[in-house]
Design goal:
Layout lengths: L1 H10 L1 H12 L1 H4 L9 H18 L6 E2 L6 E2 L21 H26 L4 H12 L2 H5 L4 H22 L3 H16 L3 H13 L8 H17 L1 H10 L10 H4 L9 H5 L11 H10 L16 H13 L4 H17 L6 H8 L13 H21 L1 H27 L7 H25 L3 H20 L9 H4 L3 H10 L8 E4 L14 H12 L11 E2 L9 H7 L2 H11 L2 E7 L11 E7 L4 E6 L6 E9 L2 H9 L8 E5 L14 E9 L2 E8 L3 E8 L4 E5 L2 E3 L2 E3 L3 E6 L2 E9 L4 H31 L5
Parallel strand pairs: 3-4, 3-5, 8-9
Antiparallel strand pairs: 1-2, 5-7, 6-7, 8-12, 9-15, 10-11, 11-17, 12-16, 13-14, 13-17, 15-16
Helix pairs in contact: 2-5, 5-6, 5-8, 6-19, 6-22, 8-9, 8-10, 9-10, 9-11, 10-11, 11-29, 12-29, 16-19, 16-20, 17-19, 19-20, 20-21, 21-22
Length: about 775
Amino acid sequence: MKQLSLRWALRSPWVLALAGTAFFFQRAVLTHEVFLARDMARVYLPLRQYWVDRVSHGEWPQWFAYDGLGQPFLPMVISGALHPSQLLFLLLPVATALKWSVLACYPLMFLGVYALGGKAGLGHAPRVMAAVVHCFGGYAVCLSNNWLYLMGMAMVPWILNAAVALRAAPSWSRAAGVGALLALALYGGDSPTFLVCSALVLCTPLMDAHPARGLRWAAAGVLFGFGFGAVILWPAAAAAGTAGIAEQPLSEVLRWSLHPLRAFDVALGPLFAGDAITPSSARVAREVLQQGTDSLWANSLYIGLPALVLAGVGLFSRARQRATWLVVAATVVLLVLSLGRFGGLYEVLVRGVAAARPFRYPERLFPFLSLSLSLAAGVGLQALRSDERRRRRAALTCAALGLGCGAAALAGRWWAWWPEPLQQEWVRWSAWTCGFGAAAALVLGVLHTQAFRDGAWVAMCFAELFFVNEPLFSLTRPEVVQTPSAFVERMRAVDGENALGRYRLYGAAEYHNRVESPDVTAADEEALALSFSLHSVFPAWWGIESADGYLPAASWRVRRLVNEPALWMLKLLGAFNTRYVTWSTRMRADAASLPGTVVEEDPLLGLQLVRLREVLPRVYLSRPRCVSSFAAAQVAMRASAFSPSRETVVECSAPLGAAAPELELGAVRLTTYAPEEVQVDAEIRAECVLVLSDAFYPGWTATVDGAPVEILAANGAVRAVVLNPGIHRVVFRYRTPRLLWGGAVSGVTGLLAVALALCRRRWFRGALSAPMKG
């Protein structure tokens, strides 16, 4: 009975997927520590908390006020507001729910690759082999620091699996299934995966000799995807003209390009990064790989030499099939695109197609390359079953490559092939690969029973990936970010508990000192530095609004002003109700250059909290200075005579009346400040403008005493309305543009999919019950 249970477990992909994930990520499964590295704490933790706070109170979030003076919530896409995994955050603490949503991606990915391997005609062991290589490869493990891209990677095999099933047996229900899976990737926030997979779905019929009919069905599946996703795509398109991400410079778009030297990563190990950001790895990222940052997009791309040998065997075993060369062609195109500035094609695409610029970071395409190599490895393992000569050749190849790596390790020890500190890493990983190459050759040469050989090969590859990649995922004690830092406590002590609309903070501390303590891990240090620097979107975790403009939907107006440090830091921060700035002692300028006072300091991290002296309230009255455009507003604000406390630069089509300097303008009182609605009572004595220091953005409307009025852009980035003498009530309201139309399209698409599925089932049942002729 025990033998039967073990055999059943080894034959069940569900058991293997869950057990493999639990074993590989046992540090996460068996402890209370959570994934908070990089964007997990910077972005997803505060975004999920905001969603939970709003939904748990019966509200639907449309506006996110905590970044870049405010921006739309759903059209930023990465908020993932409609993804089913959001429900988990209503049941568990946000950090814990974030951990389990990350862990859930790996068995989902495993089963998707396993199912796709079945479509490729692979047996059980080769399918498991492909799933292991893809799910526990270095790139997938390193994506545990970014849920959005990990979720997109997990969805890719399911989308391709549905596309292949649609090609094999076209039907409306299967086309709708393809569209639903595409939309699910989009709902998670990964629009590049949505678009790339849509293109790949359209390519699958090309495997047939006569693809015309298949292309029509594939196009139907993609159209279903766009229909299901219209509730996000339509509002996102409406915000595209204002979102600053579309204006990012080409150097920023191409920053995270896959360097050709990282091919060594795939075969040898995390040669260029290691398991943490250290001064040596930062030097490698900047000087050797020309990354422009102190870190890499993914610290490892490792899948191992044995898997690469199997991939080569798989390619040659099916070299005569049309589908093989279609997959190879698509892989080569994606490889050149992932090289970014080193390949040239991505740059041509970005320059030629304006809509491609927001989809930055070419290295994000590596999951498609990993999937191709993983499936090829599964095909190779299948091919070794039936061809003894091929098996001997594969054994000799593994042995030869292992000896080559051993020779490279010895040579690297005596001759300096690489600059420091790569020399030591080269020797280490070359020697490691030598050992696994020899082990792979031994498995192929000694084990002649197919079942034992397949099992040993899969186990060996899993063990190899575990020992190399398992140290690469970072866990942090949740208390590090759940405990307010001294900076947060200081702000609360001086200005009271944080509340929406009270004041903002600007996180200018881009660097921090390293903490040399055995009790502080690299992951804890990163979380600790974020707690003090309050960079990116993390201030929202403590209910503090940030002026950073980190998220993709932040207004281009804000981003352009941020790119002018003299104007932004010295004149506009106080005008935009920014009371605090975090600063680093490692930055070139001294914090004393800011118009404020250092009120708190952390000497260990080298960070300071500066409180600005002159800060305008969130809403105030001002004399307008009319200009014709944003560029003219920049010129006016750069002038030494400009002072936001005396006048406001307003973009207007006709001149505005301005009260004489000696006249008192009146008084205003902020009565309601909610994310989607702001109410102000004003007593006006002379014609002026009411300035609300929130982002000027489509979707906002204003009324004065119930009558609609035009919202004008003030000081380049915020809102203003003209008021005449009298007592007025001014109300600003936000509604996501085109949300209802997009929701209607998605709803109609869903109803159409259900109707087509029901009609097909009714027709099928009728066909079964019809009497047979003859």
